[in-house]
Design a protein that fits this description.
301 residues; mainly alpha; MetI-like fold; 14 helices
């Protein structure tokens, strides 16, 4: 009995030792920064003077006095998330499913080609697209359209409120086939082929029903991972408008998303308390989307 208790005690201590690095890193990079941001959201902090507690003033101003946030930032963030986030996610699934139907060699080549843009650094990616959408005659798109006589004068793609958001969505979608795309492709390829045979015996008649009743349920873990990665990628691309236009705020707030708004107040105006309140709001939104993804693709048991 004493030996069993000693072994059990040693196992408990060893488990704690193994968990310590994870707990330490999680606390250092997640728990502490989030706690500090929540605390600062209730203060006025200009990075020079000590934070001064002001209660819910930042949140009240956010919802009642910040016209830019309510009129531009919030609706544009929602529309960008739907088009680039959900659109990129469904595009990742469609591309993964399409590639999975090919033989191994062309499937591997196409997967590498589609995945490679996500490896490009943000600065390099922005520079490439900035040249393509340059607003003078030297811009590739303008030069091509002028050559075809489709337009009479160059279009300021990155400075116009009518074109900046579509360009942001195009750039984000082009680089959205990252790890989530590979995970979904892996889930589809590793699905049990016997399930497909059984499904057709049970009444599945076409590829669409096959996707709904077999492919998606059998790849639920990979679909959930892809959804989370799409969410993270969309948030990381939140400052793409300022990077492309070279301005913050963006021209006429055409591409002003919540991440750009946080950068504006935090690193340009040095209103860190207000920027922290915006960050908390963004964190809540991300958590709600993550919960929705877990409900949709998580384990039902």
């Amino acid at each position: 009995m004493k030996t069993n208790r000693f072994v059990s005690t040693m196992e408990k201590h060893s488990n704690k030792v193994l968990l310590f690095p994870y707990v330490a890193l999680f606390s250092l990079f997640i728990l502490i920064p989030v706690s500090v941001a929540i605390g600062l959201s209730f203060t006025y902090f200009n990075t020079v003077q000590a934070p001064r507690f002001i209660g819910l003033t930042n949140y009240i101003n956010l919802l009642t006095n910040d016209e830019t946030f309510m009129q531009y930032v919030l609706p544009k963030t929602i529309s960008f998330s739907i088009m680039a986030g959900f659109g990129g996610y469904f595009l990742s699934f469609f591309m993964a499913w399409s590639i999975a139907q090919l033989p191994k060699l062309p499937r591997t080549i196409l997967a590498i080609i589609i995945y490679s843009p996500s490896l490009t650094g943000g600065v390099m990616l922005t520079n490439v697209w900035a040249v393509f959408f340059n607003g003078d005659k030297s811009g590739y798109l303008n030069a091509f359209l002028l050559w075809l006589n489709i337009i009479d004068a160059p279009i300021m793609w990155l400075q116009s409120e009518n074109t900046l958001m579509p360009v942001m969505i195009i750039v984000t979608l082009w680089s959205s086939m990252g790890v989530g795309f590979l995970a979904i492709l892996s889930g589809i390829l590793n699905g049990n082929q016997e399930l497909y045979e059984a499904a057709y015996i049970d009444g599945v008649k076409n590829r669409f029903q096959e996707i709904i009743y077999v492919t998606i349920p059998s790849a639920r873990p990979q679909m959930l991972f892809g959804a989370i990665m799409s969410l993270v990628g969309t948030i990381n691309a939140g400052s793409i408008g300022t990077a492309l236009s070279g301005r913050n705020p963006t021209p006429n707030n055409a591409g002003q998303l919540i991440v750009s708004h946080i950068d504006d107040y935090g690193f340009i105006r040095y209103e860190m308390g207000y920027a922290a309140a915006l960050s908390v709001l963004l964190l809540i939104g991300m958590r709600l989307i993550a919960i929705g993804s877990e409900k949709l693709f998580g384990d039902k048991e």
